[in-house]
Request: fold
Amino acid sequence: MSYVGDTGEISATYHPIGEVDKLVRPTVTNAFVAPGSVTRGQFGLFQYTMAPRAGGPQPHIHKTFSESFYITEGTVRLYDGERWVNASAGDFLYVPEGGIHAFRNESDARAQMLILFAPAPPREDYFRELAELLDSGRQLSPEEYTEFLAKHDQYMV
Reply:
């Protein structure tokens, strides 16, 4: 139990759309709807929009947080550790800590999903640093790339 009072408290956090930070890339827009800084570290909620044929990450795991995917538009290819499935609006995938997963847009249409991280790691840092790395044109060695991913609790399988 994390609240032990009896009367409740005024503690809600309103986060209007104008305050939502977005990372816009050529094939992906990531809206950091509710990062851990807004949710007291309990979860992170991002809206992830992919252009047609945007691709996505290779299968990987996270050791310290779960990740959930809720498809809101288009078709997203989801990997649950055993198989790839075509997920469409309303479909959901939960991945506990250590669960192998991946996602991508291989379709000719835009796709969008909500990604929920719990508890809330600073995943926005991962996406921002990855964008900076890509923009710099710097090529990491395999060891440097592995170290970069580990810094953000991401391990390729």
About this structure: The two ends are 36 Å apart (CA to CA). The mean pLDDT is 97. The chain has two helices and eleven strands. Residues 123-136 form the longest helix (14 residues).
